[in-house]
Amino acid sequence: MSQESIDQLSHQLGLDKGIVPRYFDWLGGFLTGDWGISIAQGSNMQPVFPKIMSAFEVTIQLILAAEIIALLLGVAVGVLAAVKQYTPIDYIATTMAFIFFSMPIFCVAIVLKMYGIDLNVMINDLGWDSWLGNPFLKTTSPESLSGDGFFDSFITYIGGLLLPTLSIMFISFAAYSRFQRSSMLETMNMDYVRTAQAKGISQGRVIMRHAFRNALIPVTTLFSVNFVTVVTGAIITERVFAWNGMGSVLVEAVNKNDPNTLMGWIVVIAIAVVVANLIADLVYGILDPRIRVG
User: Fold this and answer.
1) How far apart are CA 188 and CA 211, in angstroms?
2) Other C-beta atoms lying within 10 Å of the C-beta of residue 130
3) pLDDT of 158-181, one tens digit each?
4) What is the mean pLDDT of the segment spanning 128-150?
5) pTM of the full structure
6) Domains in the chain with CATH codes
7) In whole angstroms, what is the distance from residue 252 CA to residue 243 CA?
8) In 10 A of CB 33, how many CB atoms?
9) Cα–Cα distance measured from residue 292 to residue 281, given in angstroms and rounded to the nearest whole number
10) Mean pLDDT across the chain, nearest whole number?
11) Number of H helices and number of E strands within the chain?
12) pLDDT tens digit string along 244-278?
């Protein structure tokens, strides 16, 4: 490439300006949806914004599915373990939590991928592939998560999300169940709970009406803190299952020295973390009206 071509490209990309003007140019473009172009695509350079939004749509599906399942199961198991303290149920829940804590996400993803292949073979042998699809469990990124009709679309969607979602869900489930158990035990020893028990209110009503709601506050805090961990887990899981999400975008941007994509990726993840914390703050006010702002 000639020096004239280099100078022309530098001017086109704004690289002939100072750092401060370039930053404000980038910020103004970012706020208006112009995030620059991805130089990782070579001669087929494409805008960064649609590239990241397409990948974020894939990743957020994994994160939401994993977090919803982890919250529902983790909170339920945590409450049950607290109510049945020092019983076999409590010991089993504690053992499961520590096992899930100790398993790296990439190991879980690889193991689930291997078992997913075996389960697909079993489904075919049983003849269930005619209505579950072939293969039912997607061990690599599917071209589409929709089918011809509602049932086909639902089955395809479940089969595509199941394995990567479970990979991310296990560690979050372990954290939520342990926090919920600890918080529930602490709440059950509060004076207002003991007063309700002394008045003869049934144990189930005491737990659900008086203890459960306040015991959710620490778990809500954990949700906002755990979001970054879940994003990291999603990035690793996407690489194992070859999903074209934010993980693939990050790796490609780093490997090919693509600063525009990398800056856009960082800002999108930062915004997602801020939104997760905002949701947690709003939930605080719902769980305990005393801490509402204004």
Assistant:
1) 6
2) 9
3) 777 788 888 888 888 999 999 999
4) 58
5) 0.79
6) 60-291 (1.10.3720.10)
7) 13
8) 10
9) 9
10) 82
11) 12, 2
12) 888 888 888 888 888 888 989 999 999 998 998 88
The residue among 83 and 4 whose pLDDT is bigger is: 83
214 by Cβ neighbours in 10 Å (0-12 / 13-18 / 19+) ranks as middle
**b/e map of 248-285 (b: 16 or more CB within 10 Å)?**
bbbebbeeeebebbbbbbeebbeebeeebeeebeebbe
- Amino acid residing at 83: V
Comparing CA positions, the residue from 241, 234, 233 lying closest to residue 110 is 241
**Token representation of residue 140:** 């690599």
What span, in angstroms and rounded, lies between the C-alpha atoms of 36 and 166? 35
> For tokens 């926090």, what's the residue?
179
Contact 162, 61 (CB under 8 A): no
The whole-angstrom separation of Cα 254 and Cα 196 is 58
| Secondary structure of residue 33 in the 3-state scheme | coil
